[in-house]
Each structure stands twice: as structure tokens, then as C-alpha cells.
Amino acid sequence: MATPGSTPETPPVVRRRPDPADTLVWEPGERWVRGTKGGVTVVDSRRPVLVWEPGAPVPIYAFPADDVRMDLLRRSERPPRRYHAGATVFYDLALDDRVVRSAAWECPGEELAGHVCFAWFGREVLDHWYEEEEEIFVHPRDPHKRVDALPSARHVQIEIDGTAVADTRSPVLLFETGLPVRYYLPREDVRLELFTPTDTSTRCPYKGVATEYWSWAGEGEGEARRDVAWSYPDPLPAVGAIKNRIAFYDEYVDVIVDGERQQRPGTAFSGR
């Protein structure tokens, strides 16, 4: 606190920046983490480490080798072409008559010596992962990321190729760090008769399992858009407000909020 007559120094003011793209970042975790395959517990750790590989937007877990069934791992004879952040030792997971190639690897660097990472998103290595007693999907939750679902009175309209497909004054706005706001709309305010249901299902570590998707076939010369809208019939409790509501990829539709047309965001979903 400044004393009377003194002039407080102004601290430097900087915008928060992401971690350097060429750096592997880690921090200790406090959650009890288990991973299973075919009913067998392969990982059981109360000392997990969260690891962000260079350029990766989401973390993975590393575990002390003592917390891993190393007897189920054998040195890979053919490591993957895409190496993980300086890793040179890879392991195949051998369980009964099943072998998962390059399922795990030793972490590089002195600070993470003796730790083992497992492949997550994009590969079916372990069947189930749990933090405490809750199953998690796709990747570990980032402790520096928030996901908030807030009821709102904003007027939200959705158009596709000039056709009005949704209009509501009671949306739930989902704010997720690093992604654009998603507007979850009551079903009765969405013209679902204009869409075609699909059998797509996706999982999210923050929201749960989306088991309902809809595609837009296009009208006239309009472009078809597959899986442009989705819903979570049974979301995780933290975002229960989005239950059974419908959201759209803002990257592929026009969103109008309180009369102002929003700019289409550019995200990892833009090129799907």
C-alpha cells in the first residue's frame, strides 16, 4: 500500500500469453487416476503429472513407473514415426492375446525421469480412464480451463444460407476457455424438421457424451453441412443446464445475438 505523499509504482501490464510452442510443460496433479483395459487396471496412481506437449492445446497424464503395470509393457521394436516431444523409448501394451503398438512411452527430461505417458485422444489404447470415481473422456481435464453454462435472456437467432432455423430468447450460453461461446437453444425454438438426424456420437471431457447430431441437407444451391448441430441428453453435472438443448457450430452457420450478426470464428473445428 502506498504511504501518504508517495507515488505508487505502476507494475508492468502484459496480456497473458500461451506457453512457448517449442516447450514441454508439466505440473503435478492431485487426482487419483486409473486406467483400465479389458477389465484389468493398467494404471493406478495418486501421483499423476499433467503434461502439455509442445504446441498441444490439451494435456495428457504421465505416471511414475511404480504406478503402472510395467509387466504388461514391452519395448516397442517399431516406434511410431510421430515421436512424442523428444521421447525415444516406446512400449507396446500386451494383454492376453492383444497387443497395442506404441501405447506408452518414457517421458523425456530429468524432471520427468521415471514417468510413463499413455496415448489418449485419437487412439483406443485403454478402454476407460477415471479421475476419482468419475469416468473421463478424450483427454484429462485442463485445470487452467473453465467451462461455464449460464442461462441467459439474450435474443439468439441462427440462419443457414439465409434460412432462419432457430430463434430463442432463453438460451444457455456455454463459455469454454479457448473456444467461441456456444449457444444451447431449447428444442422447441429450433426448426428440427429442416434437419436430418445422424448416428454420430462424440465425447467431451467437460460436457460428457453427445449422442444426438443433425445434418443440414442444403436448400436450393446451399451447401450441405454434416453434423452441424448436436445435443447432450445426459451431460455431466457441472453443465447440466445444457441438457437436451441444441447447439450449432458457429463456424458453419450465421449467429445473430441481440440483433448483431456475429463473425464466424476460426477454430480447430473449421476444417472438419
Automatic annotation (TrEMBL):
Residues 1-21 are annotated as: Disordered. InterPro entries: DUF427, DUF427_sf. Residues 36-119, 156-251 form the DUF427 domain. PANTHER family: BLR5716 PROTEIN (PTHR34310:SF9), DUF427 DOMAIN PROTEIN (AFU_ORTHOLOGUE AFUA_3G02220) (PTHR34310). This is DUF427 domain-containing protein. It comes from Streptomyces spongiicola.
